Amino acid sequence: MTQAQPALELEDFERALKVVHRVTQRTPLESSRYLAEILGVPKVYLKCENLQRTGAYKLRGAYNRLSQLSDDERARGVVAASAGNHAQGVAFAARELGIKATIFMPLGVALPKLQATRGYGAEVVLEGATFDETNRAAQRFVGETGALFVPPFDDAAVIEGQGTVALEMLEAAPEIETIIVPVGGGGLISGVAAAAKQRAARDGRPLRIVGVQSENAAPFRPSLKAGRPVTTETRPTIADGIAVARPGDLNFEMVREYVDEVVTVSDDDIARAIVMLLERAKLVVEPAGAAGVAAILAGKAHVSGVTATILSGGNIDPLLLQRVIGHGLAASARYLKLRILLPDMPGQLVRTASIVAAQNANVVEVIHTRHATELPISEVELELHIETRGHEHGDTVAQALRDAGYTVRVGERY
Length: 414
Description:
CATH architecture of the largest domain: 3-Layer(aba) Sandwich
Strand content: 15-25%
């Protein structure tokens, strides 16, 4: 457990901002008219930490932590356990500061993240089928070598570094009234909330902070209800960057003090957000980084006034991106699977295709079978995967087929 540490003041974050700017970029603060219209607010900003060096905000906390090491600690080297962004942040920061870094990663880590971490000069050790096993291996290494373990979120210096995101946002757009933040263990939101709330208080105005977790890994709401950090069961989620079973101790206390609300979103919500950011903002964002936008699109975030959300990372495996795009389009009913019973006679495939075309929908895939045991002997099943413009358009296509006398079932999404 992390030892008690002093409260972080605005001056701590302002000092950290000068430190992290030695290596980080001041990422863009873009505006989205589309999201502003959905929320009914004057403006929505997107803080593009997906465009940060290493592809995520994690470099800020890692560099701020490593910059505070003594000469003796630097000589011993640093260790981290991570499947992605924290690994890359620590590796990059260590390289810039001339410190040896050893990063433990799970055996199934995505190849782009593994290559990037090695590319920043770290020694990578692949060990453990799960993150818990990987983390235990890292801790054993610390005990054997005396190297310094760099935690991903439950550390004051790390939190200071992550909070610099908020200072950049409020410098660029001081009118922001609500900030929506993706939440895993709490490193980003505790820093952002503390820095932003204290900055707003100094300026004499209120500011609202909303956290967003994946509904499959959401320990903060039960922890806040219990009044202490609790460990919750996690289920698989595409947002692996925020899939944490227990809040950090220091992070929990800061979230309890500074955060107004924590909400959850589904994988479908996140997939829709990724597609929206690709199409409308021309931004590639990883699932965890899109959680704030997912909350906006799903109507989960309660906001007031000018709103901003942090796109916390952009490190997504291209193979995962391919699957997520398909899933996001399906979740928005822009891919639709229809199962149609047809009389087993010539011309039926052409007729159904003509009906779909007349509704301005596009057929992507056709599966035609007459061998399913549940089919009457005189009928066949046609499975159509079609592109539509959304739920209403998909309903129109299905109804047109029914009006033509066909039995139509809207199948499961894919």
